[in-house]
Structure formats: C-alpha cells, structure tokens
C-alpha cells in the first residue's frame, strides 16, 4: 500500500487531546506571562542603534507603534510601513516633541496596504530603488476580526490569511536583496501562541472547501500557524552564508486595538476582568525589540540550523527561546505551506535562489479570484 502523501497528512483539525494542550498553552500565556517576564525591564533597555535600518509594518498603533518609537529613540533609522501615512506623520511629530535627544529622530514613512499584494510589490520596488541596505524587517501588522464573517482580499484570499501571512511572506521575500546588503540582518514576525490551537490545510488556506468551518478565531490562528510554517522553510532554505536570521516572536496578550471589532461593552468587560494579567503595548513590544537587537540572536539562529531543528527561532513574551507547537514543527506540512504560499503570491518555486542572486523576479499578480476552491 502506498504511504500517505504529505498532503494527506495535513490535518483538518486537532485531536481533542491536542486541542486541550493547545488551549492550556494559550491560557497559561495569558495568566502567567507577567510572572514569566518579571525579570524584564519596561521599556526594554536598548543599545545605541545608529547603524540599524528597520522597517516596521503596522506601526501606527499598539505593539508596532511601540517598536517603531523605541527603535527610533535609540538611534535607528526606522521606516514606518503603514496604511495611514498621515497618522504616522502625526505620531512622528509627537515623538519628536517628546524626545529628550537633541538630534531629530530618523524616521521615514512609506505606504503599505497589506490586503493588496500589489501594494506589497510597489512598496518593495520603491524601497529597492533607494538602494539602501536593510537590517531588520519587522512584520508586525496584523488583524483579528473577532466575530466578523469571512471576508476576502482584493486578490480573493481570506483576509486574515492575506494580512497576517501572505502579504508579510511576499514582503519578506521581495526585501531579501536589500537585507543581503545589511549586517546584521533579520526578519522578525510578530506571531501568537494562538497558533497552538490550529492546523493548516495547505489545500484549503482560504477555508472555501467546506471541509472546515470558518470562524474569525480559526482564520486568525491558522494564519499565524501558516506564518510559522513558512518561516521554518525560509530559515531552512536560506544558505547559512546569507546570515539572515528568521525569527517568530510571541508578544504576549496585550491591550491594543486588535480587538477593535468586538462590541465596546464586551471589550470593556474583558479588559476589566483581565487587566491584572494583560500587558500594555510597551511590555508586548519587548520580545520583538529583543529579537531585533540582542547580539546572541544570530548565533542562536545559526545553531538551530546546525542542529537540524525543524523550526526557525521562536522567542517568547519573556524574551526566551521557546518551542512552537508540535503542528508548527511538521516539516512535511510546512513545505506544502511554503509551496502554496508562493503559488498564492505569484512567485515561482525557485524565487529564493533568484532573489538571493540579486536577479530581477517576476511576481505574477494575475491572481484571479480563488473562491471556487482552487486554493
Ligand atoms: N494584542 C495582542 O494580545 C496580541 C497577541 C499576540 C499577537 N499579536 C500580534 O501583534 C501584532 C500587532 O497587533 P496589535 O495588538 O498591536 O494590534 P493593533 O493595535 O490593532 O495594531 C495592528 C497594526 O496593524 C496595522 N494594520 C492592520 N491592518 C492593516 C492593513 N490592512 N495594512 C497595513 N497595516 C495594517 C494597523 O494599522 P492602523 O493603525 O492603521 O489600524 C496597526 O498599526 C499583530 O500581528 C497581532 O496579531 C497581538
């Protein structure tokens, strides 16, 4: 009898035991994150970062805002990649007025609208035309449309999948040539422990086959798991001499605008109930800032590569290495997610090699609607 293919092995859901373990991990994070992170200072002390250029997506609110502000205040050149440039300029003005430093903050603003893959391509083309080296890309922007019905992006992809995984994946790949020009260099994905309660079916990334019922929680958690799986393969495929660290981070459960779709009354009750254990955005920015600036991180990533560990580095909200979920460490499914992601964003299977060689790449954006179940 033929052994089951990897695509057969992709699960439609977790067993009840795995589901219980996954939720225990999420609940543990919520109730014990403060205790686990008690050794950390807030704000996280950062070294002078004058030689660092960082792109931070979604930096007009919540965790991304804190990451961008603290990097800039430590001297980094920060590029705020945002959907609302006016809001970004007004934030810069405020930070500039508040900063104790005599020098002005070194911040630029560029428009990036993740529900459009075309916007991602335009962003990377504009960035590339500047010819500047890039040290750190922080894929922070994300959505969790709690309680909302299933929606699709311009290209026809489920919106959590597009904003939280597909668009950041495309951005990461297209920025590899400028990352190669920087040193140190890394890609940081602001992920979530919620990936512990999910599975990804690479043949149904859009929840359209009817095999799995869509809910906003399923959409969000699946997109975060797909991000870890894609990052695992990117980490494995990048040649070690490229020296590009791929890191996923858990920010912790924080009070931000991520719950914007939840009715105000329920949101307020939730905040009151959980306020003793929730992080604020500054506390939740520490793991990404740590991953972006700690000198041990590139060594840790190189070590994982040597050890043949099946996942990229994953940093917890207490700034310690942690293991992603068992599902996230399945390299067979991760490879399928990698391939499907490239198909969905219009890149060929050899795009990584082409991009690393610095050659021009064609991104076919003839991404016709896929709601008929093609993906
Ligand atoms: N808060 C938590 O408890 C928690 C836990 C685990 C993981 N995370 C992750 O942390 C990251 C940051 O979330 P947050 O809590 O700081 O939430 P947030 O306050 O809602 O910030 C999200 C950021 O993403 C931007 N964004 C949303 N949709 C976008 C789009 N279509 N195109 C471009 N930018 C877009 C938002 O822009 P606007 O300012 O224009 O709205 C905002 O700046 C997300 O990836 C989230 O999944 C958060």
From TrEMBL:
InterPro entries assigned: NAD(P)-bd_dom_sf, SDR_fam
Gene3D superfamilies, per database record: NAD(P)-binding Rossmann-like Domain
The UniProt record lists the keyword RNA-binding: no
Pfam families linked: adh_short
Keywords: Oxidoreductase
Source organism, top-level taxon: Eukaryota
GO terms of molecular function: oxidoreductase activity
UniProt key word 4Fe-4S: no
Recorded family membership: Belongs to the short-chain dehydrogenases/reductases (SDR) family.
The protein, known as: Uncharacterized protein
Organism per entry: Rhododendron simsii (Sims's rhododendron)
Lineage of the species this protein comes from: Eukaryota, Viridiplantae, Streptophyta, Embryophyta, Tracheophyta
């Amino acid at each position: 009898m033929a052994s089951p293919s990897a695509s057969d092995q992709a699960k439609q859901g977790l067993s009840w035991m795995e589901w219980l373990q996954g939720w225990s991990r999420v609940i543990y994070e919520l109730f014990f994150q403060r205790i686990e992170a008690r050794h950390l200072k807030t704000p996280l002390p950062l070294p002078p970062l004058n030689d660092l250029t960082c792109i931070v997506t979604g930096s007009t609110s919540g965790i991304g805002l804190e990451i961008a502000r603290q990097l800039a205040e430590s001297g980094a050149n920060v590029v705020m990649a945002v959907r609302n440039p006016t809001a970004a300029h007004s934030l810069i003005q405020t930070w500039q007025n508040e900063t104790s430093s005599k020098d002005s903050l070194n911040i630029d603003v560029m428009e990036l609208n993740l529900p459009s893959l075309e916007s991602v391509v335009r962003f990377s083309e504009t960035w590339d035309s500047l010819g500047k080296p890039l040290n750190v890309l922080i894929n922070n922007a994300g959505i969790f449309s709690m309680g909302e019905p299933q929606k699709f992006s311009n290209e026809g992809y489920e919106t959590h999948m597009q904003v939280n995984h597909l668009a950041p994946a495309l951005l990461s790949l297209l920025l590899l040539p400028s990352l190669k020009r920087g040193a140190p260099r890394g890609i940081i994905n602001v992920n979530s422990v919620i990936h512990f309660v999910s599975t990804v079916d690479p043949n149904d990334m859009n929840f359209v086959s009817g095999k799995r019922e869509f809910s906003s929680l399923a959409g969000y958690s699946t997109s975060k798991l797909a991000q870890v799986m894609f990052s695992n393969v990117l980490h494995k495929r990048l040649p070690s001499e490229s020296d590009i660290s791929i890191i996923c981070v858990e920010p912790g459960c924080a009070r931000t605008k991520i719950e914007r779709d939840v009715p105000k009354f329920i949101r307020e009750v939730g905040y009151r109930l959980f306020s003793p254990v929730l992080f604020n955005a500054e506390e939740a920015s520490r793991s990404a800032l740590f991953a972006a600036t700690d000198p041990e991180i590139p060594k840790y990533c190189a070590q994982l590569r040597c050890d043949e560990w099946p996942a990229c580095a994953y940093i917890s909200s207490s700034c310690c290495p942690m293991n992603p979920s068992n599902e996230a460490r399945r390299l067979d499914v991760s490879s399928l997610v990698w391939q499907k992601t490239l198909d969905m964003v219009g890149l060929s299977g050899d795009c990584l090699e082409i991009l690393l060689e610095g050659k021009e790449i064609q991104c076919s954006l003839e991404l016709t609607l896929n709601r008929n179940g093609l993906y």
